[in-house]
Design brief:
Blueprint: H1 2-11, H2 13-25, E1 46-50, E2 53-56, E3 61-64, H3 79-84, H4 96-108, E4 112-116, H5 119-134, E5 138-142, E6 155-157, E7 163-165, E8 180-183, H6 188-195, E9 200-205, H7 221-231, E10 235-239, H8 250-254, E11 261-264, E12 275-279, H9 281-291, H10 309-319, H11 325-348, E13 354-358, E14 361-365, H12 373-378, H13 382-393, E15 397-398, E16 405-407, H14 414-434
Parallel strand pairs: 3-15, 5-8, 5-9, 9-10, 10-11
Antiparallel strand pairs: 1-2, 2-3, 4-12, 6-7, 11-12, 13-14, 14-16
Helix pairs in contact: 4-10, 6-7, 11-14
Bound molecules: pyridoxal-5'-phosphate.
The site of pyridoxal-5'-phosphate has 15 residues, from helix 5.
């Protein structure tokens, strides 16, 4: 690790200078606190990005398997997007709005849609709606989920099974035990018991966990979740923000799920800050009274720059040209090739590591595959994680921070994937040489 850290500093004198300048007036030296989590002494600074790669300010080329943590899943800087967002905001809908809603309906099946500036906002707003409609105070979430900076969701199960704040969650508005019930993924009995209290308005979940690594549902899990939620009159919200990796309509379409509400953000604007949520017709009808009238702008669902002409144009430019069937036909086999390359190295070294794939997203683990969020969290190895990220970065590969995930865009090539396979193999060779 020391050798890799030294190599990193030697390679990036200009990024080092810019990082130093950033420390003058940027809180924590970076525009967002999570940017401190990159491996190496400072974050590399980007000069330009295009397709599936970018160049840093020291002139080094990288293959980008992070893709803005799904925000740039389409690849960087599509021409259609650049042309679409060259306007301002007017507070009026544009001609693109109806196209966008029709397309979202076609992909995800929900009847009525609305725009926000982030998936966090989309989740926040639907939680207000479901409480308003049901009159119930609590939200159920999956243990070790992530749905953005949404207060109700920054909660996990404590050692005694009670609901506690997630480690690292700063300044909670209220004790999350008052707002949230937490259930382990793939545990139907726990879900049934949690909802039996009768105080849960909605269950908010990713169809497969992606933020604590990829954890897939066991056979029959989703059908049972839907049966249990319906039996307890609990609405079901599916957050497809990352799981759109499974196909153009996310897991909702790929696995024929039947939610009441779908949330989708990040890639649908090709990197432009937009997100949406869609709901069934009966929910839209139930909400209708609060969407009209004098208080419609102060109800807690807002965002001055949401739903602008620029936002709808960005979604139209993206969804009319990318994230379509033909792209997935290219991306998913590339992700399979990436997965096979990683699995071959793991097998060669007879490690107990594993690798998991969800459409065009793939991820390796330093353990056998976990089946729920707590097991996934327990298998994280921060030191090994930092080493693997830095080893890859020093050899021209950017992996998604916080875990060992790669996302494949339509712009990636077989050569990009094979480059990763070779770099991953060399990391394992270096690690195992140390133990011999
Ligand atoms: C499943 C899921 N939902 C919502 C969000 C929040 O997205 P944003 O940070 O763009 O608001 C994230 C972010 O990683 C996410 O993974």
């Amino acid at each position: 690790m020391a050798a890799e850290e030294h190599r990193f500093v030697e390679m990036h004198p200009r990024s080092a200078e810019l990082a130093e300048s950033g420390r003058r007036h940027l809180l924590a030296g970076v525009p967002m606190p999570w940017m401190t989590r990159w491996p190496g002494a400072f974050p590399i600074h980007v000069a330009e990005a295009s397709g599936a790669g970018f160049v840093d300010v020291d002139g080094i080329d990288y293959v980008d398997f992070c893709l803005g943590d799904t925000g740039a899943m389409t690849g960087h800087g599509g021409g259609a997007l650049a042309a679409a967002v060259g306007r301002s905001t007017t507070m009026l809908p544009s001609g693109d709005a109806a196209w966008v809603a029709d397309e979202l309906h076609r992909r995800f099946g929900m009847a009525k849609w609305q725009l926000t500036t982030s998936a966090t906002d989309a989740n926040r707003f639907v939680l207000r709606f479901v409480r308003h409609i049901t009159g119930r105070p609590k939200i159920a979430v999956i243990d070790w989920c992530y749905h953005g900076t949404v207060d109700e969701t920054l909660a996990i199960l404590g050692p005694d099974g009670s609901v506690i704040s997630r480690p690292g969650a700063i300044g909670p508005q209220v004790d999350p035990a008052l707002t949230t019930r937490v259930v382990p993924f793939n545990d139907l009995d726990a879900l049934d018991a949690a909802l039996a209290h009768g105080d849960v308005a909605a269950m908010l979940m990713e169809p497969a966990l992606t933020n604590i690594g990829i954890v897939l549902p066991q056979p029959g899990y989703h059908d049972a979740v839907r049966e249990i939620t319906r039996r307890h009159d609990v609405l079901l919200i599916i957050d497809e923000t990352h799981t759109i990796s499974a196909g153009p309509g996310g897991c909702t379409r790929a696995w024929a799920l039947d939610p009441d509400i779908v949330v989708i953000g990040k890639p649908i604007g090709g990197g432009f800050p937009v997100a949406t949520y869609g709901m069934t017709e009966p929910l839209a009808e139930a909400l209708d009274p609060v969407l009209h009238g004098h208080e419609a702008d102060v109800g807690g669902v807002g965002g001055t720059l949401a739903g602008s002409a620029m936002a709808t144009a960005a979604i139209r430019a993206t969804l009319s040209t990318t994230l379509i069937d033909a792209d997935y036909e290219r991306m998913i086999p590339l992700a399979s090739r990436w997965t096979d390359g990683v699995a071959a190295s793991i097998g060669r070294h007879q490690l107990t590591w594993s690798v998991q794939q969800l459409g065009c997203r793939a991820e390796y683990w330093f353990s056998p595959l976990p089946t729920n969020g707590a097991d996934a969290a327990a298998s994280v190895d921060d030191e090994l994680d930092a080493f693997m990220h830095l080893w890859a970065l020093n050899r021209g590969i950017l992996m998604t921070p916080f875990h060992n995930m790669a996302l494949l865009s339509p712009e990636h090539t077989v050569a990009d994937v094979d480059h990763h396979t070779q770099v991953f193999a060399s990391a394992l060779a270096a690690l195992t040489a140390l133990t011999q």
